[in-house]
Design goal:
With 115 residues, chain A is an all-beta fold. Helix content of chain A is 0%, strand content 50%. The chains are: A mainly beta (115), B mainly beta (111).
Chain lengths: 115, 111
């Protein structure tokens, strides 16, 4: 398993601003993921962030809006840029320690409200 | 890609009753099926998973069954307790490295 922390845990932001969310893992992992969970909804994958390569974005998500950094095997950031109220969601990072595209462990999430 | 459907969307039971949540998947090549529990204000927590080489797996009060032929798998919770109240998500592999999640089931266990 893996222990994951995220910062901030929650934030209230003004439209047009940007927020960077940090994800820290207690062990080295190759595969890290960023998800969005809108209120009362399921988890939607934003991108896969592997250390040493550029993030791979899912359909509907672009790098200009959600730039991701992965400087090492225990840390990643997701920035939500030029925010609008529609970006109000829970943002979750997860890791796949086995690297087989199977078991993922999630952080506690960042609850974002955009006014 | 993989398509995962989950039913029911909400489930209310009395404490001590059993609860069953069902999921279907579309990709016959999928071979790993996890279940996650998400409590209010927390991230999803892996509670049990099953691989395609077995038909059932148990862990105390929870069990998962898998029917590969019908492409469906189910979560069974026996002797439910109020602390089982949460949203439960099933998932299946999508592509080579990611998971596709069901829409979730909100389970409410009344004392």
């Amino acid at each position: 398993s893996a222990v994951i922390s995220q910062k901030p845990s929650r934030d209230i932001c003004q439209r047009g601003t940007s927020l960077t969310i940090q994800c820290q893992v207690d062990s080295q992992v190759t595969m890290m993921f960023w998800y969005r969970q809108q209120p009362g909804q399921s988890l939607t994958l934003i991108a896969t962030a592997n250390q040493g390569s550029e993030a791979t974005y899912e359909s509907g998500f672009v790098i200009d809006k959600f730039p991701i950094s992965r400087p090492n095997l225990t840390f990643s950031t997701l920035t939500v840029s030029n925010m609008s109220p529609e970006d109000s969601s829970i943002y979750l990072c997860s890791v796949d320690p086995g690297g087989r595209g199977e078991t993922q462990y999630f952080g506690p999430g960042t609850r974002l409200l955009v006014l | 890609g993989e398509n995962v459907e989950q039913h029911p969307s909400t489930l209310s039971v009395q404490e001590g009753d059993s609860a069953v949540i069902k999921c279907t998947y579309s990709d016959s090549a999928s071979n790993y099926f996890p279940w996650y529990k998400q409590e209010l204000g927390k991230g999803p927590q892996l509670i049990i998973d099953i691989r395609s080489n077995v038909g059932e797996k148990k862990d105390q009060r929870i069990a998962v069954t898998l029917n590969k032929t019908a492409k469906h798998f189910s979560l069974h919770i026996t002797e439910t307790q109020p602390e089982d109240s949460a949203v439960y998500f099933c998932a299946a592999p999508s592509g080579w490295s990611t998971l596709t999640f069901g829409k979730g089931t909100m389970l409410l266990v009344s004392p």
